[in-house]
Give the backbone structure.
Amino acid sequence: MRILTTTTTTPPPLALGLLLCGAVTTGAVEPALARAPAPEVVAEATARVQQRARRSAPTQFRVTVWALPRAPASDGAADDTAHAVNTFERTAAEMTRVARGRLRVTPEGRARLEVEWRDGGIERQLRRGAQFGAAKNGVRLTRPLPVLPPLWLLQTIRAELLLEQLAALGGDPTRLQLGYDGDHDFFVLGGRSGGAALWIDREDFVLRRITLAPGLHYRFGPVAEGGVWPAWFEVEAPGLRALRVELESPEAAAPGAWNFDPGWLAN
């Protein structure tokens, strides 16, 4: 059984403030019994961290998509994240490159992805808030692999907006639970019931995982050296092989520089 404990290192100033005011219970406790702070407190801490990251401008990336080894079977733990894919070191021999392309995101809640798969097909994916669509070679897909996350959540620098965006994706912004993923303990904005949720690292208030539906997870890697964005994110979807998407050569752009109209999918 997994036990949550507080770190023995000195917490960041905001985390220390939460501890002093009794928002986070100390000692060894079960996740279901631990006392968590209000969602607004965690959202505010996360927004401040993201403001310091300085990545709130519209941004485009070159991306490389890799197919990952099959994840091991669950060890039976109650939390469905016990076999988090991003806890494993990856080597080139373990991963298979399956696509290249470009990803663009804007903090207004828009993101789009265009990749060319190794089979030669060109796929476009578009997110506009809770709306998601995809097309391959100009033909709309009815059951696409949702490679594209709501990446704008990593750009949000106001707590109230972060909670509003979670609600727009179908999550409950009034609910917060504790959870764990790999070797990290988390505040889970939206709860662990299977709907949309934001997994916030308890130690540094970094948004490290977005869940949109049961089994659909986006886990973010460490920040690229010398950069402000994660070097990659990994995608898990029910019944499909996990993918890693490397975010390369980020470039900021002026607002309104790109088309996020649904008609772009079939052009």
